[in-house]
Specification:
Blueprint (H helix, E strand, L loop, with lengths): L18 H17 L11 H19 L4 H4 L17 H4 L7 H11 L3 E9 L4 E8 L7 H14 L6 E7 L4 E10 L5 H17 L2 E4 L4 H4 L3 H5 L7 E4 L6 H9 L4 E11 L2 E2 L8 E2 L10 E5 L2 E2 L4 H16 L48 H21 L1 H4 L11 H18 L6 H6 L6 H20 L18 H10 L19 E3 L6 H9 L11 E3 L11 H11 L7 E3 H6 L6 E7 L2 E8 L4 E8 L2 H21 L4 E3 L11 E7 L8 H14 L5 E7 L1 H19 L7 H15 L1
Parallel strand pairs: 2-3, 4-9, 4-10, 12-14, 19-20
Antiparallel strand pairs: 1-2, 4-7, 5-6, 7-8, 10-11, 13-15, 15-16, 16-17, 18-19
Helix pairs in contact: 1-2, 2-12, 7-11, 14-16, 16-17, 19-21, 23-24
């Protein structure tokens, strides 16, 4: 018989192919080669052969423990494999899409608003926005204002950059009257049958939008990628595209559960039967029993209909059938298939000494271990090291904040894993040009945490890069364009628009002045007081940056600097010191004689020295330099942000155009090289059909812009403030013109 074996079976490995056998053969071969004629006894009783046997068995066992699929090692003890913890996104995060076309928005509305019968979405090139017309369901007539508000809420929650909603209006279709005489099957419920018939007609006339919940995917045979194509939240909406005729409707009605046959079946308008419904019609739902033109028979007996119960059943069936199933199960609860994994408890280790015969007299707790005991522990250490590396994989491959790396080795390995995820998703969580400027004292661990935060959001960033802020939401926190979120996550900047970058320095009662301002005269005069002989090499001392590296409270740092450094007595700081004071190599201690030391700063933009303060205690000045740098790190970091302003919200003439606003006074953003790379980054993020203007503002200009921007966004939301829109927009425009 040539029947193939269909059941799984264990295939025995040939002895000579087994790892243990190969290790044994290789060990003896190497021993013979190295020992020559010194050792010729290779029998089992020889201690060396016994050691090789036990050691090779331990290595073979280690190989077995390390031979399971990688996903098994990432499975928790409770048997749960959490791919998102390791930066492996589920289908709902990768394959779902955001609305872009008019058909996308139509599906979005039908998917989320069961109160509408149909909706049409049209794009207006002249006004760069959408006009949405909806038909309320037969049970929602009179509720048009609520539906219009819901449409507005849903649209603005998904609005794309440089687009807007122009108008939302309701459209009421001409209604047809249903007249029929039919015979029902015995034992049925005439009232329920009538409700089913009306629900079938309503669905047929509306065009047959049908929503499938995620639980139905398995019955369709579609892959997650196919199922989620065009889906925004995991549900799937399908439109029945057909020519709606009297014949097509009759086929649906005759298939209705409980129907035996029709003797009369018409849809009437103005007393005339209609045969083509493609123009779009509604169905008249009788409000009184006397308006009902349907008679139901069972045999020769006309069946009575409970009219109130009929209306109640029709309402229930309509909302159940029309939307397939109410979406109680959100997309976040979709149980997409995951790899079949098993937790492997492989970390128990038996010392290799226990595998030796008792005649070797090896004991685990011997007070004075022999040299042979110590030698065997080397094998234990190799095995333990391999198992420990496997044990830390869950933390090492995690991108969650609580699984931050500990130690330089983990930092290096996690960085390599993040590089792998960058390549997998086609993003850069740490572009090379960021390394040129650093990020204001970020430690390697903090860099990794920033990268991990970016990668956690990368699926949403890539999918929704064209998404704008919700301009009907008066809140500024967590309500930003995806372009800004991408930029700020990558650079470690503050994306919260409640945080005003222009007010960071005033928040510490400090005023920034630049080189074109009169305050520089005082600094120039002070620079002349630092004699050149004071800066001789034998009198200049480098700053020890290792002192006071622990983060301190920024307010406490500010108070301490005011107390001990006279330069802060006037509540102002030069742009040069603000920017270049973030680098410790720009500070020096100078022996001024008479037991005094000076803390001086080298101005990189003016190429002069500034005396920051003097004291007899050199360590105190050194500490102040470190504290000052830490304080300026914080101020620079807090002053960096990006504003994405859409003129189309208030100016109909500026189609598909953005105004991007950034601060120009920080260390990184003051660099021409860094600005160039920021421009390239933004160009790569912003959709290709949108042009943009890039404005770099100084601190005072930023204060003006932020004030006007916040008020303008409030005016867009609040109808009572609409009258201020043009004045605020004009002020912003004048500000931008003054820059050029």
């Amino acid at each position: 018989m040539n029947e193939e074996r269909k059941q799984p079976f264990i295939r025995q490995e040939a002895q000579e192919q087994a790892l243990f056998s190969r290790l044994q053969a290789h060990t003896l071969e190497e021993v013979q080669r190295m020992s020559g004629n010194v050792w010729t006894d290779y029998n089992v009783h020889d201690p060396g052969v016994t050691l090789a046997d036990v050691a090779n068995y331990g290595l073979a066992e280690l190989d077995y423990k390390l031979g399971f699929p990688l996903a098994d090692y990432l499975t928790r003890e409770d048997g749960v494999f959490d791919p998102e913890r390791h930066g492996l996104f589920l289908p709902r995060d990768v394959y779902t899409t955001t609305p872009v076309t008019t058909e996308d928005y139509r599906r979005l509305m039908l998917d989320n608003i069961p109160e509408i019968e149909d909706v049409m979405v049209e794009w207006d090139d002249n006004q760069c926005g959408y006009d949405i017309r909806f038909t309320p369901s037969p049970f929602e007539e009179g509720n048009e204002a609520y539906i219009a508000n819901r449409i507005g809420e849903i649209y603005h929650a998904h609005r794309n950059l440089c687009e807007r909603l122009n108008n939302v209006s309701s459209v009421h279709r001409e209604k047809l009257e249903f007249q029929a005489e039919l015979e029902m099957k015995p034992g049925g419920d005439a009232t329920l049958l009538l409700a089913r018939i009306y629900a079938t007609i309503l669905r047929y006339l509306s065009g047959g939008a049908h929503i499938f919940t995620p639980e139905e995917r398995l019955t369709t045979g579609l892959s997650p990628e196919e199922w989620l194509e065009g889906s925004e939240d995991g549900t799937r909406l399908e439109m029945e595209i057909l020519h709606r005729t009297e014949y097509g409707l009759y086929k649906k009605l005759i298939e209705t559960e409980g129907v035996q046959a029709f003797s009369i079946c018409y849809l009437m308008m103005d007393g005339k039967p209609q045969s083509d419904f493609s123009a779009g019609y509604g169905l008249n739902i009788p409000t009184e029993k006397s308006d009902l033109k349907v008679r139901i028979f069972c045999g020769r007996t006309e069946m009575a209909v409970d009219f109130k119960r009929f209306l109640s059943l029709l309402h229930t069936i309509y909302y159940t059938q029309r939307r397939a199933k109410v979406k109680d199960a959100g997309a976040k609860d979709i149980n997409w298939p995951l790899p079949q994994t098993t937790f492997r408890d492989i970390f128990t280790q038996t010392p290799i000494a226990k595998d030796f015969p008792l005649c070797y007299r090896l004991t685990e707790n011997r007070e004075k271990p022999t040299s042979f005991d110590a030698y065997l522990k080397l094998y234990d250490w190799v095995v333990r090291k391999g198992l420990d590396e496997v044990k830390e994989l869950q933390q090492l491959f995690s991108i969650r904040e609580e699984d931050k790396p500990t130690g330089r080795r983990q930092e290096r390995l996690k960085s390599r894993y993040l590089d792998f995820l960058d390549g997998l998703y086609g993003v850069e969580s740490q572009p090379g040009w960021l390394n040129e400027f650093g990020n204001y004292g970020e430690s390697p661990q903090e860099i990794l945490l920033r990268r991990m935060a970016f990668i956690r959001s990368s699926a949403g960033l890539a999918k929704c890069r064209s998404k704008a802020r919700n301009c009907t939401d008066a809140r500024f926190e967590n309500n930003v364009a995806i372009v800004k979120k991408w930029f700020c996550l990558l650079l470690g900047a503050d994306m919260n628009e409640d945080h005003a970058a222009g007010n960071v320095l005033p928040g510490y009662n400090l005023r920034l002045f630049e080189e074109n301002e009169s305050e520089l005269e005082a600094l120039e005069a002070e620079s002349t007081l630092i004699e050149e002989r004071m800066l001789d090499a034998d009198k200049v001392i480098l700053i020890d940056a290792g002192i006071a590296m622990d983060d301190g409270d920024t307010r406490d740092d500010c108070t301490r600097l005011r107390q001990d450094l006279p330069i802060f007595n006037e509540n102002k700081i030069s742009g040069d010191l603000f920017r270049n004071g973030t680098r410790i190599d720009n500070y020096r201690l100078v022996d001024a004689g008479d037991g005094y030391y000076m803390l001086v700063f080298r101005n990189q933009e003016r190429k002069r020295w500034t005396n920051l303060g003097r004291d007899r205690n050199r360590e105190k000045l050194n500490l102040l330099a470190v504290v000052l740098r830490r304080f300026l790190w914080k101020l620079n970091r807090d002053s960096e942000t990006l504003y994405v302003f859409e003129p189309i919200l208030v100016d109909e003439t500026r189609h598909f155009e953005l105004d991007l606003v950034l601060p120009a006074w920080t260390y990184r953003f003051h660099s021409a090289r860094f600005r160039e790379m920021c421009g390239e980054l933004l160009r790569s993020i912003i959709p290709a059909h949108i042009t943009y203007n890039l404005y770099w503002l100084d601190q005072r200009q930023m204060q003006t812009f932020e004030k006007c921007y916040h008020e303008l966004m409030k005016a867009v939301v609040n109808g009572d403030m609409k009258k201020y829109e043009s004045a605020l927009y004009k002020t912003i425009g004048n500000l931008f013109e003054s820059i050029h």
